[in-house]
Amino acid sequence: MNEFEKAIGYTFANRVYPERALTHSSYVNGKHGSNERMEFLGDSVLSVVVSKYLFESLDVPEGRLTKIRAKLVCEDTLFKFAKRIGLGRFIKLGKGEESTGGRGRKSILADAFEAVIAAIYLDGGLEAASEFVLRFMPPIEQIKSDKLIIGDYKTSLQEVIQRNPEEHIEYVITDETGAAHCRTFTARVLLNGQSIGEGSGLSKKEAEQAAAKEALSLMGYETD
């Protein structure tokens, strides 16, 4: 247990919590005594901590905050966090799971990571759990620079337009300039055939994103 506490950077007053958090259902031949209930609690604590972090740090619409949070707490992300601290080596697994590679399985590691959050929360409260979770969160500046999260203006525009089912948008490339290996594209986004935004980029996708961004800005939406 000392090695585990060192790995996560937290010392427990009550070691019942981490013992339960690290016990997979296969080890106890069923749900009773496993970490599944703690996983449930950890998921909620994680959501609260990440929501607060994003709310206080990013001035973007609710829909965008929801998308960012979803990416930060998804199974793939939690799996990476779990691997960062070598969580797999501490989990108690049944022989079947052990023999089939369960110690490195994405779902098992992600669930165990949430259970560890719950263990810290139960032992030390929300502040301790927050400190643990925030160690893994990327800096806000990195989040802002991640176009897959912040700069998906096409998705944002589509969400706005979908509020009126009769509306239809499409993107057209209106110009291509430059040498073959370094071309610049210009795109327009059309709403029911009428141009509502234009933008340029080094790829067609980049140009379409720029056009959607201009459209959103002209419609009065925050785009930075």
Topology, element by element:
Layout: H1 2-8, H2 16-21, H3 36-57, H4 62-72, H5 75-84, H6 95-99, H7 106-134, H8 140-145, H9 153-161, E1 169-177, E2 184-191, E3 194-201, H10 204-218
Antiparallel strand pairs: 1-2, 2-3
Instruction: Tell me the radius of gyration.
Output: 23 Å
Specify the helix fraction band. Answer: 40-55%
Q: Structural class given helices, strands, pairing?
A: mainly alpha
| H/E element order | HHHHHHHHHEEEH
Please mark out the parts with pLDDT under 50 across 5 or more consecutive residues, or reply none. none
Shape: elongated
Total of domains: 2
Q: Count of helices? A: 10
CATH class of the largest domain: Mainly Alpha
Q: Report the major sheet.
A: 3 strands, antiparallel
**DSSP summary, beta strand count:** 3
CATH architecture term of the largest domain: Orthogonal Bundle
The H-level CATH homologous superfamily of the largest domain, spelled out, is Ribonuclease III domain
Q: What spatial order of strands do you see in the largest sheet?
A: 1-2-3
Mean pLDDT: 88
Question: Roughly what fraction of the amino acids lie in strands?
Answer: 5-15%
Distance between the termini: 46 Å
> In the CATH scheme, what's the topology name of the largest domain?
Ribonuclease iii, N-terminal Endonuclease Domain, Chain A
